[in-house]
Specification:
Blueprint (H helix, E strand, L loop, with lengths): L10 E2 L3 E4 L6 H8 L13 H18 L4 E5 L5 E8 L8 E6 L9 H15 L7 E5 L3 H9 L3 E2 L13 E5 L3 H4 L1
Antiparallel strand pairs: 1-2, 2-3, 3-4, 4-5, 6-8, 7-8
Helix pairs in contact: 1-2
C-alpha cells in the first residue's frame, strides 16, 4: 500500500503536473534540505530535521485543507520541487511559497509557471483576496521571481515572528488584477 493524501486537487500547466505531496517525494526534498542550497529556508537541515519539515508540508494539507503541491515534470515524471498556498499557524498573512529541489529546474521558468498556476488556484478555488511571499533579503533569485510574478515589496506589511530570520514581504497582485 502506498499512502496518499485524499482529496488533494491536481493542477496542470504546459510542462508541470502539480499534485499533493507523496512519501516518494521525501528523498528529493531531503537532498535539497540537507544541502547548502537550503540556506534561505532554514537549512541546511540534518536528515531528522528535514524529515520533520517534510511532515510539516504534508500535515499542512490536513490542518488547513490546502498546501504545497509537488511539482512533477510531465515529460520525465520527475518530482523537482514544491510550490503553493501556505498559512502555518502564527503567520500574519497567507503566503505563496516555492522551493525547487533540483537545480536542473532553476532558471528555466518552471517556478514561474507553477506559482502562476497555484496563485490562480488560491484566488479562484480557495477564495483568497490577497497573498504575500516572505523572502530572505539575500535571496535575490526569489526576489527576482516574485517581481516577475508582479509582486511588489510591501514595506508596511507585518513580517514574521521575531524568532524567525528577518524577511522581506512581497505582495502579489490581487485577483481583481490578474483573473
Amino acid at each position: 500500500m502506498t499512502p496518499v493524501l485524499a482529496g488533494t486537487p491536481t493542477l496542470e500547466t504546459e510542462r508541470i503536473l502539480l499534485r499533493g505531496p507523496e512519501g516518494a517525494d521525501w528523498e528529493g526534498w531531503a537532498e535539497l534540505a540537507c544541502s547548502d542550497r537550503a540556506a534561505y529556508i532554514g537549512g541546511p537541515y540534518t536528515r531528522p530535521l528535514a524529515f520533520r519539515a517534510w511532515g510539516h508540508v504534508i500535515g499542512h494539507w490536513i490542518i488547513r485543507g490546502f498546501g504545497s503541491f509537488t511539482c512533477v515534470d510531465k515529460a520525465t515524471g520527475k518530482a523537482f520541487g514544491h510550490v503553493g498556498p501556505w498559512y502555518p499557524d502564527g503567520r500574519p498573512e497567507k503566503e505563496l511559497g516555492w522551493t525547487i529541489w533540483d537545480p536542473h529546474y532553476e532558471g528555466k521558468g518552471y517556478a514561474f509557471e507553477a506559482v502562476t498556476r497555484v496563485r490562480d488556484h488560491a484566488y479562484r478555488e480557495l477564495g483568497w483576496t490577497t497573498a504575500v511571499s516572505y523572502i530572505d533579503a539575500p535571496n535575490t533569485r526569489s526576489i527576482a521571481l516574485a517581481s516577475r510574478l508582479g509582486a511588489v515589496l510591501d514595506e508596511g506589511a507585518e513580517t514574521l515572528d521575531k524568532d524567525d530570520p528577518p524577511v522581506l514581504v512581497y505582495r502579489h497582485p490581487g485577483p481583481e488584477d490578474i483573473l
